[in-house]
Design goal:
The protein has 453 residues and is α+β, with helices and mostly antiparallel strands. It folds into 3 domains: 6-34 and 215-278 and 414-450, FAD/NAD(P)-binding domain (3-Layer(bba) Sandwich); 39-75 and 205-212 and 292-386, Alpha-Beta Complex (Polyamine Oxidase, Chain A, domain 2), CATH 3.90.660.10; 112-199, Guanine Nucleotide Dissociation Inhibitor, domain 1 (Orthogonal Bundle), CATH 1.10.405.10. Helix content is 32%, strand content 19%. The protein is built from 14 helices and 19 strands. The chain has helices at residues 6-17, 58-66, 113-131, 144-149, 152-158, 163-175, 188-197, 215-223, 266-269, 280-287, 344-349, 354-369, 402-406, 432-450, and strands at residues 24-25, 37-39, 45-47, 71-73, 79-84, 87-92, 207-209, 228-229, 234-239, 245-249, 253-257, 260-262, 273-275, 294-301, 311-317, 324-327, 335-342, 378-383, 417-419. The strands form 6 sheets. The protein has a 7-stranded mixed sheet. Strands 11-10-9-13 form a 4-stranded mixed sheet, with no helix packed on it. A hairpin with a 7-residue loop joins strand 16 (324-327) and strand 17 (335-342). The two termini are 18 Å apart. The structure holds flavin-adenine dinucleotide. Residues 2-8, 25-28, 33-35, 49-52, 233-234, 263-265, 268, 271-272, 294, 296, 384, 389-390, 393-395, 421-422, 430-433, 435 line the site of flavin-adenine dinucleotide (FAD).
């Protein structure tokens, strides 16, 4: 097994339960990958990576329950703030995403009625497109080639979309789960596919976990303590004529195995030397699958002061740095706002010095929540683009033209090398749920490969 993120941990546990001898090699000095906990100065457990549990993330919900990890609902009572062209607009949350304007009740937003109507009409046309995309085989959508060669930006232009309508779909690419890419970087087919396999409509941000979801990785790793090796980056996987495999890792160490599961983000697979080499279609697919660009922010306050003003901490809009902010306060605890800097905003932000980075974030928090937001007890900024064993977040995306040219190999094993990792999932790729699905599916494939052994 390569990679001790959630997917690799789940896969290793499954194979071990079936009585197979498993070794789990992890490049970092910690397990969990994008499931990553942090303890604040005041002792609060927070998630620097993923944090939410979705309403239909059944495998994740089951696993949390198995370890006795308790969920609590994300706080959506009261009104959120949509920031648009320098003005704040308060509105309640519309739980039916498709009828919402980026989660808000459109009729409550004090925006020009024509722009709102145009945005809702465009969202509807996009939703119709999503329905035409087969989740398992997006290259079979009608007009797939055309839609795959069309960037999201070009599609929006072709629709004659106005500024607000353009923003709503661009936001979905930058922050809607798949995350971290700009409208010129991916195709409208890819964006539609992300919603076909991981629909925002199914409320992926329904729950949070008391003490942080990262406890799950710690629990799984605890069960696998004797099979995990940390600081063991895998550099080569060679398949030998006798049906065996040789993995080279760490400082020149080697390991013989009957099969290998690679559970790492797609672009990082290019850093492993495979023998025989990956087929050209596979290499081309990986070369066109970069990670999104993403920074996570956590601002901790003495109390969730915004709730006193009837606000629920949901902030969205075209601010210079942050584009999404959500109340992530633990029940009865201090106030916590989680926020994200995505796509081009993240590239610009990461070129600033530390003091300017902090100030840029605080400025946006004040734009949403007023002067009290300027002085958090603690401000944590975690840049996933700087993590060399992840290289971005939330997940990878495909460049225009990639699905229809090379996408067919997406889940195909390479001999006795099987792919896991959230990006290999058919449902909820990019999320924890996808990581679990892909881990279990890989364990199944290994069992079949090893057949009589
Ligand atoms: C900021 C952020 C917010 C997110 N929000 C959510 C959310 O709210 N809800 C949700 O469901 N999902 C969310 N996600 C996505 C979720 O975290 C991921 O989908 C999931 O954790 C991926 O798990 P994985 O095991 O597939 O991959 P990873 O967690 O990336 O694990 C891969 C592991 O492989 C290791 N590795 C890489 N290369 C090698 C190598 N050559 N040799 C050995 N080891 C290697 C890495 O160090 C890593 O530990 C978020 C992610 C981020 C970063």
């Amino acid at each position: 097994m390569v990679g001790a993120g959630l997917s690799g941990l789940v896969c290793a546990r499954e194979l071990k339960r079936q009585g197979l001898t498993v070794r789990l090699l992890e490049a970092r000095d910690r397990w969990g990958g994008r499931m990553h906990g942090h303890t604040s100065a005041s002792g609060l457990r927070l998630d620097l990576g993923g944090q939410w549990v979705g309403a239909s993330h059944h495998r994740l919900i089951e696993l949390l329950a198995e370890f006795g990890l308790r969920r609590y609902p994300t706080y959506y009572d009261g009104q959120g703030i949509f920031h648009w062209r320098g003005l704040t607009h308060r509105a309640g949350v519309e739980h039916d995403f498709r009828s919402s304007l980026l989660f808000f009740k459109p009729q409550e937003l004090d925006l020009p009625a024509a722009a709102v109507a145009e945005t809702l009409a465009l969202q509807l046309r996009f939703a119709q497109l999503v329905e035409q995309v087969p989740p398992q085989a997006p290259w079979n959508a009608s007009n797939a080639s055309e839609l795959d060669r069309l960037s999201i930006a070009a599609w929006l232009q072709g629709q004659g979309a106005g500024e607000l309508a353009r923003y709503s779909l661009a936001w979905l690419g930058r922050l809607g789960g798949s995350g971290g890419f700009e409208p010129h970087e991916s195709s409208i087919l890819h964006l539609a596919w992300t919603q076909a396999v991981a629909p925002q409509q199914e409320t992926p941000e329904a729950w949070l976990v008391e003490g942080g979801v990262a406890q799950l990785a710690a629990q799984l790793a605890g069960e696998l303590a004797e099979v995990i090796q940390l600081q063991a980056p895998v550099a080569a996987i060679e398949q030998e004529g006798d049906g065996g495999l040789r993995l080279s890792y760490g400082c020149g160490e080697q390991l013989q195995a009957a099969a290998a599961v690679v559970a790492i983000p797609p672009p990082l697979r290019l850093g492993i030397r495979f023998s025989p080499a990956l087929p050209p279609d596979w290499t081309a697919l990986l070369q066109r699958s970069p990670m999104g660009s993403m920074v996570k922010m956590l601002a901790i306050y003495w109390e969730p002061f915004w709730r006193r003003q009837g606000l629920n901490g949901l902030g969205i809009g075209n601010l210079p740095t942050l584009e999404l902010c959500v109340d992530s306060s633990p029940p009865g605890g201090p106030g916590v706002l989680a926020g994200f800097i995505a796509g081009e905003r993240a590239w610009r932000w990461q070129r600033l010095g530390a003091a300017e980075r902090r100030q840029a974030v605080l400025n946006d928090l004040v734009s949403w929540w007023g002067p009290e937001a300027a002085e958090p007890q603690e401000l944590v900024l975690h840049n996933w683009n700087e993590e060399s064993w992840t290289t971005g977040a939330f997940t990878s995306f495909l460049a225009p033209g990639t699905w229809t040219s090379y996408g067919r190999v997406w889940q195909q094993a390479h001999g006795r090398v099987v792919w896991a990792g959230t990006e290999a999932a058919s449902r909820w790729p990019g999320y924890f749920e996808g990581a679990i699905e892909a881990g279990l599916a890989a364990a199944d494939q290994v069992r079949q490969l090893l057949g009589g052994r």
